[in-house]
Amino acid sequence: MIYLQLFISFFKIGLFSFGGGYGMIPLIERELVANGWFSAQEFVRIISISEMTPGPIAVNTATLAGYNTAGIGGAAAATLGVVLPSFILIAATARLLYRFRSHPLVKRLLWGIKPVVLALIIAAAVFVGRNILFLGPVGWGSWDVASLAIMAVSLVLLLTVKVNPIFLLLGSAGAGIALYYLGIF
């Protein structure tokens, strides 16, 4: 039964998500937390691991969440559920979209979806940020200063020096290990 629940949950996510994996994060979070499969903190860990792992974040998240919920069968059910809607929709609409790509209605439809995709990505960033940068309830005394510093340095390096994200991931992992052994967290 859990396999069917995972498949249906991730099928809904795959069916109603636009904008790629980052646009799916709010939907995945609601589904996993609402079903009681994960807490918000556990979900943030899954997103972090999914981001570091090669491959699309939505597929990685579905696979990891499915595996943590119900083993290999759960991973297969969740992964199939999240991938199948895109496959069906692309197979069914690719020829039509290509044929009518310059039609004003299709252009306006795609133009109208873009702001929602941006909102979904921002919502995902706010959710992940709230669960990473604060130690408890959001407030001035609850900032996780170490995480905030790693994030700030990473952002500056990404935007100014354009450091390769792989080096940032490795460097921040090293910083996390060092801070742990120093007893900071």
Can you give a write-up of this model?
- The chain is mostly helical and 185 residues long.
- Helix content is 80%, strand content 0%.
- The protein has seven helices and no strands.
- The chain has helices at 2-15, 21-34, 40-52, 57-99, 104-133, 145-161, 165-181.
- Helix 1 (2-15) packs antiparallel against helix 2 and helix 3 (40-52) packs across helix 4.
- The radius of gyration is 19 Å and the shape is globular.
Structural class: mainly alpha
Q: What best-fitting shape do the alpha-carbon axes yield?
A: globular
With helices defined by DSSP (H or I, 4 residues minimum), what is the helix count? 7
Q: What is the overall pLDDT average?
A: 84
Task: Kindly summarize this structure in a few lines.
This protein is mainly α and 185 residues long. The chain has helices at 2-15, 21-34, 40-52, 57-99, 104-133, 145-161, 165-181. Helix content is 80%, strand content 0%.
